[in-house]
Amino acid sequence: xxxxxxxxxxxxxxxxxxxxxxxxxxxxxxxxxxxxxxxxxxxxxxxxxxxxxxxxxxxxxxxxxxxxxxxxxxxxxxxxxxxxxxxxxxxxxxxxxxxxxxxxxxxxxxxxxxxxxxxxxxxxxxxxxxxxxxxxxxxxxxxxxxxxxxxxxxxxxxxxxxxxxxxxxxxxxxxxxxxxxxxxxxxxxxxxxxxxxxxxxxxxxxxxxxxxxxxxxxxxxxxx
Length: 224
Hints:
This protein has helices spanning 17-27, 72-82, 101-106, 153-163, 168-177, 184-196; strands at residues 61-64, 89-95, 114-117, 123-125, 131-134, 139-145, 200-207, 214-220.
């Protein structure tokens, strides 16, 4: 076990840039509350000196990779509480320790909008962006949204197929993996209406990765 990675005082285990960039394309972050001057992911950020745990995150689109030591529960609590403020989205990268009290107090039971468990282990970097080491635990991305920022199922479906063509079953499976209670029958009507509105288009048939059968893949229409 790498004790440095688990230290509450060490913020030098930075998020892999390619991993952050993928999330940033989806959420468009503007605040990093657990940063240093070198590893900050956003123009606005808080360092240990300015103390993101005491600062106001309200109205921001937050990416937070907190210290993984004993006070990580305080960061998770902070993320949940700040997400209750209008205009706020909080995305937090933490270990997938589902037995901990903070998971049950601030994530499970519908408190988080999405829980995305990552496949494999992340390789963190140092402040210069050089490889630091592989995490000794699996990770999860936790997403909280204020009520006014909550995505509708329609928006989630359309956001997914902006990235790549997907079949209805693939869309349903991806959203289910993210903690949404959705199945194929929920997705079909959304696709039908979106096609009629000119929001999406038929990208042709191919083998569905979920069912193995030939199915229509859908993608966003040009200009959408």
